[in-house]
Amino acid sequence: MAHHKKFDHFPTEKDILDFLRDTGGKITKREIARAFRITGADKIQLKKLLRDMINNGQIAQDSGRALRPADRLPGVQVIEFAGLDKDGDVLMRPVKRERGGPAPTIYLSDDRRKKAPALGPGDRALARLIPIKDDPPTYRAQILKLLTAAPRSILGVFHGGENGGRIHSIDKKNRDDYWVDRDDFKGAVDGELVTAEPVTRRKRDGGPKRARVQDRLGDVSAARTISMIAIHAHDIPNEFSSDVLAEADKAKPVALGERDDLRGIPLITIDPVDARDHDDAIWAEQDTDPKNPGGWHAVVAIADVAHYVQPGSGLDREAIKRGNSCYFPDRVVPMLPEVLSAGLCSLKPGEDRACMAVHMWFDANGNKIRHKFVRGLMNSRANITYQRVQAAIDGNPDEEAESLLKPVLVPLYGAFKALMAAREKREPLDLDLPERKIELDEAGLVKGIALRERLDAHRVVEEFMIAANVAAAEELERKKTPAMYRVHEEPPLDKLETLREFLTTLDLKLSKGAVMMPRLFNGILSKVRGTTREHMVNEVVLRSQTQAYYSPENQGHFGLALARYAHFTSPIRRYADLLVHRGLVRALGLGDDGLTNNEIEELEDIGAQISGTERRAMAAERDSTDRYMASYLADHVGDDFIGRITGVTRFGLFVALEPSGGDGLIPISEIGNDYYYHDEARHALVGERMGQTFTLGDKLDVRLTEANRFTGGLKLELIGNEDGPRTKSGGRQANHRRKRPGRPNSSRSSRKRSR
Fold it and tell me: Are residue 421 and residue 516 in the same domain, yes or no?
């Protein structure tokens, strides 16, 4: 029990309220009497005072006789998923909320959220609520037990027989089996992946849970089902209605009309080898204005999706429902039908295409002097891959790249170098975290996992796109037209404090009190570059950042070190960009299909909607990657790997296998012959007796013991001996015996290894 402050007088009502607010844990009449040194007959007076305060509505008494201020929530109760805030943090709400007062804000505690299965609509949990502040009422929820809600839809493998069948759910949150009556098969055959709906039973009915098949998704062993599982599990719309497809089919190429004729400019598109659409084209030349020596003139041209997707149309309603395209290793779930996304809105070489374009003029140091937006007609000279562009610049061009080298590629690189000079002066956040790409063979099976290349050619396109996005935000602001900004706020104070505590353990310092800017983080990152701590510090700095979102309120983009930023360059795959295009059409009088008054009134709600669909897509893409990874590693169960700790929790270690990057769990019960506690500040598990420490970023020798291709889960065990497991960084043993934890930022995990 916590040690409470002692008092030398009989408490007033205010004293009791202050004590209840300031003291953690379960507080009963006994704790109050002990704190105020109340004995003998005074206990009767205290009992009366507490009863009067309950009757007057000042305090409340929960089950177990725990007391609390009446305006605070019970310390332990059932809560449910309520959504995500603008930073992407999980919000919860009480299942049974007391009437009166402002609605409380309840954040899901970080230690559970980082690697635990994501909570979603309908999920409930028994939780301990820890007050953060009273005005407005804000709490942190520590999950005690996840409570399973009845699923609205079931995704599982069907197994049929003559008398009926069963569906084995493969949802991470619902692993039940369901009985299917013969009449409810809907043609499903043994081994198929299906979606089903639960059949409501009366309470007195016995036997297994029941369901009826809704959709058949194909052979569960087929490679293509991996992405389908993620698509259905996250409720991503993946089929267009016949009305929407018919509307898209009516689209026609545009004539020049009043558009600017850009067909004489040798714009090119640069994309990955497997790109399915081409929505941005670039070009640059040395500025001929003598007043701008060494300067550059660049053009970024983007597919004019706003011409084809009119506000309020069926295409528009479907696009806002999807919010964005979703990209999986074997497919794309597009925001727009293929006749547009891969057809009239794809800037194919040699074909006239409607576009929105921005001319930008930069000085020799990459500072933008001015810009001009136009609605135009363009004709791409070529579509070329990043690798071919890089090879050409490095002196090894192929025939097509050779013809583009002097007139197009060399000027592009010249303008890029100027833009990079401006970027380096701005000093955006410079995180270095490797990204992996799943490579599939012709049958859709994983043939390998590779690190994504980071070439200068990639950065050329990125810098041109960033410049165009900034110009779009500036233009809308200049014209006083509402915009959908891409917002990335600076890290919140609580995450910064957690980061500072962690860096202190590494003898690194993040300035306190200074204006928070990305260069402060870059200074930390530069100190660990090339060391064994590099990956760990990059990961922790990333976790300290807020999640970007869309909003009509400009809060700047912290990561890019930009005062204003709006997505303009990908309207084929992001609804936010389509809104920015419409805003420019309205602001500059470029047509009658610009942003409507109705859209302006709803921008805040639309921002919340598309921020949510973006997070949904990210979760689905991550789940799909996990399943592909598990499928790839299933043939390697029993093999030994080197792994790196990517997450430290009170229930175990999350470890990424090298070189594949597959993420697996080592349960705390399997770690070592000791009792371990979770040191949150250090992102570490520490053995209480022998002091062995497992810290974020450590390398370990591990063995893969399980790979579940349906859930994407990997289970690992440490390779060690009777003296304890080995770490590749030397298994840092503490040089002193650590006290048992009983302090903030530590949670004890006393699970002993069982063999």
Answer: no
CATH number of the domain within which 691 lies = 2.40.50.140
Query: Does 585 fall in a domain?
Result: yes
367, part of any domain: yes
The segment with the largest mean pLDDT, out of 363-367, 515-519, 726-730, is 363-367
Query: Is the peptide bond between 136 and the residue preceding it cis, with omega within 30 degrees of 0?
Result: yes
> Contacts for 60-68 with beta carbons within 8 Å, 24 or more apart?
64/26, 64/28, 65/28, 65/29, 66/26, 66/27, 66/28, 67/20, 67/27, 67/28, 67/29, 67/32, 68/20, 68/27
Number of helices and strands (H, E) in the chain?
19, 36
**Mean pLDDT value of segment 269-274:** 90
| Nearest-angstrom CA–CA distance, 404 and 269 | 12
3-state SS assignment for residue 363: coil
The overall longest dimension of the chain from CA atoms, in Å, is: 100
Q: Take residue 271 and report the two structure tokens written for it.
A: 């994309």
The answer as to whether 685 is a domain residue is yes
Compute CA 641 distance to the chain's CA centroid, rounded to the nearest angstrom. 28
Number of structural domains (the chain) is: 6
Each residue's pLDDT tens digit, 302-353: 999 999 999 999 999 999 999 999 999 989 999 999 999 999 999 999 999 9
Q: What CATH number is given to the structural domain containing 80?
A: 2.40.50
Which tens digit of pLDDT belongs to each residue from 578-594? 999 999 999 999 999 99
Residue among 735, 661, 657 nearest 699 (CA): 657
Residue type, 590: L
Strands 382-385 and 268-271 turn out to be parallel
% the chain with pLDDT above 90:
43
What whole-number distance in Å separates Cα of residue 338 and Cα of residue 392?
Answer: 32
Q: How far is CA 197 from the centre of its chain?
A: 29
Contact 738, 691 (CB under 8 A): yes
| Nearest CA among 468, 516, 524, 522 for reference residue 489 | 516
Q: Specify whether 594 is located in the same domain as 560.
A: yes
d(CA 372, CA 385): 28
Q: Which pair of structure tokens corresponds to residue 724?
A: 């304890």
Q: Which of 168, 186, 221 is the last residue of a domain?
A: 221
β-pairing, 76-84 with 67-69? unpaired
Same domain, 264 and 138: no
We report the CATH number of the domain holding residue 52 as 1.10.10
Q: What is the pLDDT of residue 148?
A: 60
Residues 280 and 261 in one domain: yes
> Is there a single domain that holds both residue 204 and residue 116?
no
Query: What range defines the domain where residue 209 resides?
Result: 154-221
* Span 634-686, pLDDT tens digits: 889 999 999 888 888 888 888 988 877 788 888 888 887 788 888 877 888 88
Q: Are residues 293 and 419 in the same domain?
A: yes
Over residues 458-483, the mean pLDDT reads 97
To which residue do tokens 């001929």 refer?
288
- The rounded distance, in Å, linking the Cα atoms of 317 and 521 is 41
Are 173 and 277 in a shared domain? no
Asked if residue 287 belongs to a domain, the reply is yes
- Range with the lowest mean pLDDT among 5-19, 41-55, 67-81, 497-511? 5-19
Query: Quick one: pLDDT band at residue 747, thresholds 50, 70, 90?
Result: very low
Pick the range with the lowest mean pLDDT from 250-254, 539-543, 718-722.
Answer: 718-722
Reference 115, options 670, 653, 716; nearest CA is 653
- Domain's final residue, options 91, 113, 147: 147
**Unique residue bearing structure tokens 């929530």:** 73
Same domain for 352 and 280: yes
Q: Residue 399 belongs to what H/E stretch?
A: helix 399-404
